[in-house]
């Protein structure tokens, strides 16, 4: 690992190892001063050059400049006005019998990211997902876009090269993530409370090294808070023995919507994707090399064969199932681990700041994070079995609540009734044959090619999905002898809705559509510049003005127009697709989602022409799904 550090990093690690905290601090301060001077120079240079809008006003347009402005306007218009092909159109393409360069199985973060990478290189790409985009692990994440503070600790203390590579890669990908999806992701300050004086230098150096390893791609700099300032920022903290806190920055995102938008962006660039399509079997040529798959539309029962030069297995926790479809003798390469999260009211995370405790009663990390107006808390980490919709175990929920109460003021009573939703996500960790428990598993990814040429991508995490996709497509080009017309450039491919987006865009939504500010802000952060498309959808059943902005649930900003948009423009096929992944109501409040369910089914029935039998089926399946989101089982049977 040591040889992979640059000179600055080696210097700081040496000072820390020698116990020279003061020297490390002085060295870091020098580095920050140099960085500040450099950034200041850049700002002066940019000021001298002027912004595009200033140049437009103060100088005659050259032909090149006029073309650049015109091209940008075309991009914005194409993004906002683009009509997504229907799911029926996607299925027709898949059934046409033409051979694809790649067939990707799995529509989670990795699969959708791989489809986008491959199609932007000029390859002919198909993607199928058995359930819905982000229906598995990719919608049940911690919602963080992070480098991994705790992995950094292992990298330094244990000189673990694999952990070091994971942190450095993730810190780079974190910045790319925030750049290409600005409306779905943002920076988030996270507090580390300190209860022992001797821990302050340790935490301080760790946070500064986290900043340093990110280099020029670092977010806001970490900083120390005195006891009084820490309590001011987080009044609910336990005051006894608190000596201060460190605050560092990571990213946060809306994971399921990010996944859906990734799939849509892949379609925008030419990919053919279809959710609710299950792979029944893999096809092989006379040399036993995989050349496609038999697929079933789970909504209609139709079956057909898709031909492809190569098949990529990106099925997350279900990776080994597809590998055994290739060869029953293939050994498992994924060690599934369950992570339980709970949703609490927003008063548990004031000031839009997260809180992390790296030293719980059994060594696991627990956190509070503000998310979409509520507070997400977790997580657990324990071996589990792979199931489509795992139930959160009550003992895991109670463990989170107990740990939460340990570092909050005794005045704050953390009640079980405060839990608005709870879910369990299965992490597809790459199995280490020498590991005794899941905590020692590396959160890195692995690419495997079977004897029959099934290419499998497994492991990893949300933050590094793009890097995983890049490596996967690189390997696919090599293994399947593909002929791309371009190189990977997904670090610059902004996702649909990003072009023309701004943080003040919600003001126009308020002014033009008369909706309240909370709804307008939600639409901007969920759809980006395409929020205007959602807002423009009129409700034919409405008898009063405005014909948009009717909420699904009183305390949440989701509106009825989003249901119609999800069906027309985002491949939503079931009530669960809407409640869990196009909106996030099921993840924020299971009871509120149950109350909204009849109206969701009513609107989807108008759009998709469902009969009474289908409507009942949708209600029953959605109610049972909500049980896996923390809804009381007896509530699921009521209508």
TrEMBL record:
EC numbers: 1.1.5.3
A Pfam cross-reference name: DAO
Ranges of residues in domain FAD dependent oxidoreductase: 101-466
InterPro entries from the UniProt entry: DAO_C, DAO_C_sf, FAD-dep_OxRdtase, FAD/NAD-bd_sf, G3P_DH_FAD-dep
Biological processes, Gene Ontology terms: glycerol-3-phosphate metabolic process
Residues of the Alpha-glycerophosphate oxidase C-terminal domain: 488-615
CC cofactor: FAD
Reaction catalysed by this enzyme: a quinone + sn-glycerol 3-phosphate = dihydroxyacetone phosphate + a quinol
Cellular compartments annotated: Mitochondrion
GO molecular function terms attached to this record: glycerol-3-phosphate dehydrogenase (quinone) activity; metal ion binding
Keywords in alphabetical order: Calcium, FAD, Flavoprotein, Membrane, Metal-binding, Mitochondrion, Oxidoreductase, Repeat, Transit peptide, Transmembrane, Transmembrane helix
Annotated Gene Ontology cellular component terms: mitochondrion
Enzyme class: oxidoreductase
Domain of life assignment: Eukaryota
Residue spans crossing the bilayer: 12-28
Family note: Belongs to the FAD-dependent glycerol-3-phosphate dehydrogenase family.
Protein name as catalogued: Glycerol-3-phosphate dehydrogenase
Native source organism of the sequence: Hesseltinella vesiculosa
Lineage of origin: Eukaryota, Fungi, Fungi incertae sedis, Mucoromycota, Mucoromycotina
């Amino acid at each position: 690992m040591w040889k992979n550090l640059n000179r600055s990093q080696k210097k700081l690690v040496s000072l820390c190892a020698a116990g020279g905290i003061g020297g490390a601090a002085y060295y870091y301060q020098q580095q920050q001063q140099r960085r500040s001077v450099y950034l200041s120079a850049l700002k002066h240079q940019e000021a001298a050059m002027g912004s595009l809008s200033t140049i437009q006003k103060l100088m005659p347009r050259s032909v090149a400049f006029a073309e650049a402005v015109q091209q940008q306007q075309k991009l914005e218009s194409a993004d906002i006005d683009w009509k997504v092909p229907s799911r029926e159109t996607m299925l027709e393409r898949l059934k046409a019998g033409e051979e694809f360069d790649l067939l990707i199985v799995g529509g989670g973060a990795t699969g959708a990211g791989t489809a986008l990478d491959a199609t932007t290189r000029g390859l002919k790409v198909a993607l199928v997902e058995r359930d819905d985009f982000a229906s598995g692990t990719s919608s049940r994440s911690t919602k963080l876009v992070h480098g991994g503070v705790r992995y950094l600790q292992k990298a330094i203390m244990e000189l673990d090269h694999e952990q070091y590579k994971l942190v450095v890669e993730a810190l780079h990908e974190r910045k790319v993530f925030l750049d290409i999806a600005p409306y779905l992701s943002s920076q988030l300050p996270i507090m580390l409370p300190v209860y022992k004086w001797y821990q302050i230098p340790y935490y301080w150096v760790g946070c500064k090294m986290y900043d340093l390893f990110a280099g020029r791609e670092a977010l806001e700099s970490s900083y120390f808070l005195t006891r009084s300032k820490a309590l001011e920022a987080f009044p609910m903290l336990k005051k006894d023995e608190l000596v201060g806190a460190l605050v560092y920055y990571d990213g946060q995102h809306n994971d399921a919507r990010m996944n859906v938008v990734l799939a849509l962006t892949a379609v925008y660039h030419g990919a053919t994707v279809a959710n609710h399509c299950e792979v029944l079997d893999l096809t092989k040529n006379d040399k036993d090399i995989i050349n496609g798959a038999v697929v079933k539309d789970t909504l209609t029962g139709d079956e057909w064969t898709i031909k492809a030069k190569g098949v990529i297995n990106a099925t997350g926790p279900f990776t080994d199932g597809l590998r055994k479809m290739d060869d029953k003798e293939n050994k498992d390469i994924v060690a599934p681990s369950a992570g339980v999260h709970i949703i609490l009211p927003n008063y548990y995370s004031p000031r839009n700041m997260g809180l992390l405790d790296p030293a719980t009663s059994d060594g696991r990390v627990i956190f509070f994070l503000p998310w979409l107006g509520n507070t997400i808390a977790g997580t657990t980490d324990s071996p589990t079995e792979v199931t489509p919709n795992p139930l959160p175990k009550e003992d895991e929920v109670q463990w989170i609540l107990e740990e939460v109460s340990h570092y909050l003021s005794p005045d704050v009573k953390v009640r079980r009734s405060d839990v608005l939703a709870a879910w369990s996500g299965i992490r597809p960790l790459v199995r280490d044959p020498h590991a005794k428990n899941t905590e020692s598993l590396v959160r890195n990814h692995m690419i495997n090619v079977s004897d029959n040429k099934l290419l499998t991508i497994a492991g990893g995490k949300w933050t590094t999905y793009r890097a995983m996709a890049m490596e996967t497509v690189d390997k696919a080009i090599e293994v399947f002898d593909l002929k791309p017309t371009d190189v990977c450039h997904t670090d610059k491919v902004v996702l649909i809705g990003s072009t023309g987006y701004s943080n003040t865009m919600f003001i126009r939504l308020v002014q033009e559509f008369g909706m309240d500010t909370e709804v307008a802000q939600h639409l901007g952060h969920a759809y980006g510049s395409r929020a205007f498309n959602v807002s423009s959808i009129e409700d034919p059943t409405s008898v009063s003005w405005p014909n948009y902005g009717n909420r699904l649930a009183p305390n949440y900003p989701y509106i009825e127009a989003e249901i119609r948009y999800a069906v027309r423009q985002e491949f939503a096929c079931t009530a669960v697709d809407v409640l869990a992944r196009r909106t996030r109501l099921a993840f924020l409040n299971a009871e509120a989602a149950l109350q909204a369910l009849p109206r969701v089914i009513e609107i989807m029935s108008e759009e998709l022409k469902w009969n009474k039998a289908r409507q009942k089926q949708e209600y029953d399946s959605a109610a049972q799904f909500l049980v896996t989101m923390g809804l009381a089982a007896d509530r699921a049977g009521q209508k």
